[in-house]
Structures are given as structure tokens and as C-alpha cells.
Design goal:
The chain is α/β, with parallel strands linked by helices and about 220 residues long. It contains six helices and twelve strands. Helices cover about 25% and strands about 20% of the residues.
């Protein structure tokens, strides 16, 4: 894979150059594989609809599984959400658990690609968008350099297990992406915890994961 395998080096200057390359690839509509605080992820610029369609085809992912996002900053949350969202609770959760493996589902803004939006869970409800601020320095830096959220779906073909080692990545994904950022093993023990903040209180934990939320957090 000439030109695709890029190991994150220890030297800050070289690392910064590689991070900038990744952000540039995303800005130009490319796809990358990058490490997160859970598993390796397949990434694209969330505003580039052509790149999203390419990612969906490559991964074999259908509309029933919306694509989550890693934010460039906490402030970006408001840009991705519809006006009716529990800002005070989001601020409380983010202050305590971000950056980290906590994904929150919020009412989605109307300008988002449909593949980013989960269906409403109530007749009068809103589609949702799943977001988090990553604690992995590579994932966080790439999103920050791009200046907007990046897609963060696990780097595996749909139906296959996620990967925490670059050596275990499927050759189909490696061939179909423009850059692999090899930073060694990811923690890979549990996925992020997902909490749905569209309806409540109390709010619903959609998936238990790396962070355990007690009920008092969601009231």
C-alpha cells in the first residue's frame, strides 16, 4: 500500500505534518482510517456528501445504522443540532466526561446528510445525530485541524467486529481509503457509551460502554 501506511511518529514536528496531511485528505473528499480511544475508525468530512456515499459503499453500511461524529470542539455541538436540545444537561455531561468515550444523541439539524441521522423514537420526535469529543490525541487533532466534525464509524465491514490493531484491518478497507494512521493498539475493550438526549427527563442510555452513567446523571 504505497503512500497509505503512515505510522504516527514520536517526533512532534513529523506528527504535526501527518495530522495536517490527514486533515487535507478529508478536506479534499478523501477517506482515512485513524485511531480513537476505543477502536480504529473510518473517517470522512461530515459536510462532504460524496465522501459519505463513498464511505457507506466501502463499509457496506445501510441507512438503519447512522454514522456517529467526532467533534472539532464542544462549541460545534450547537451547529449540528436542532434548536430544541437540553443544553444544560449536555454541558454537565461534557464537563464531566469529555473528551472521552461518551456519545450523546441530540436532535439533528436539517442540513445534515441522512446517513448521519437516526430515526425519531417517538411520533412527534426528531431525527438524532450522535456526537462525542474524542480523548485520543490523533482523532481530536484531525477534527480540530479540519475545523469541523469527522465521521467516526468503526473501521470494519458491516457485520464484522471492530479492530483495535491496524494489522487486523480488512484489506478491502485498506485498499478503499486514502490514508491509514497507524498509532499502534487502541484500547479496544469497549465501545463508547451512548445516551439519547432527545426525550426526557429521564433520558435513556442506548448502549452501555466504556463509561457507566448512573441514573442521577440523566434526570
Amino acid at each position: 500500500m504505497p503512500g497509505r501506511w503512515a505510522k504516527v511518529p514520536a517526533t512532534p514536528l513529523i506528527a504535526a505534518s501527518l495530522l495536517q496531511k490527514a486533515a487535507r485528505i478529508l478536506q479534499q473528499g478523501g477517506l482515512i482510517i485513524y485511531p480513537t480511544e476505543t477502536f480504529y475508525a473510518l473517517g470522512a468530512d461530515h459536510t462532504n456528501f460524496t465522501a459519505i456515499e463513498r464511505l457507506l459503499i466501502l463499509k457496506g453500511r445501510g441507512p438503519q445504522h447512522p454514522l456517529p461524529l467526532i467533534l472539532s470542539s464542544c462549541n460545534e455541538t450547537a451547529k449540528l443540532c436542532a434548536p430544541c436540545w437540553p443544553a444544560a444537561l449536555v454541558e454537565k455531561l461534557c464537563t464531566e466526561f469529555w473528551p472521552g468515550p461518551l456519545t450523546v444523541i441530540l436532535p439533528a439539524a436539517i442540513h445534515l446528510h441522512p446517513a448521519l441521522c437516526s430515526p425519531p423514537t417517538a411520533p412527534s420526535g426528531s431525527p438524532g445525530v450522535a456526537v462525542r469529543l474524542s480523548s485520543h490525541p490523533v482523532a481530536a487533532a484531525v477534527a480540530k485541524l479540519l475545523g469541523r466534525a469527522i465521521i467516526s464509524t468503526s473501521a470494519n465491514l458491516t457485520g464484522h467486529p471492530p479492530c483495535n490493531l491496524p494489522q487486523a484491518l480488512d484489506p478491502i478497507l485498506l485498499e478503499g481509503t486514502d490514508l491509514l494512521m497507524d498509532a499502534g493498539p487502541c484500547p479496544g475493550q469497549q465501545p463508547s457509551t451512548i445516551v439519547d438526549l432527545r426525550h426526557g427527563p429521564p433520558y435513556r442510555v442506548a448502549r452501555q460502554g466504556a463509561i457507566t452513567l448512573c441514573s442521577s446523571w440523566l434526570e
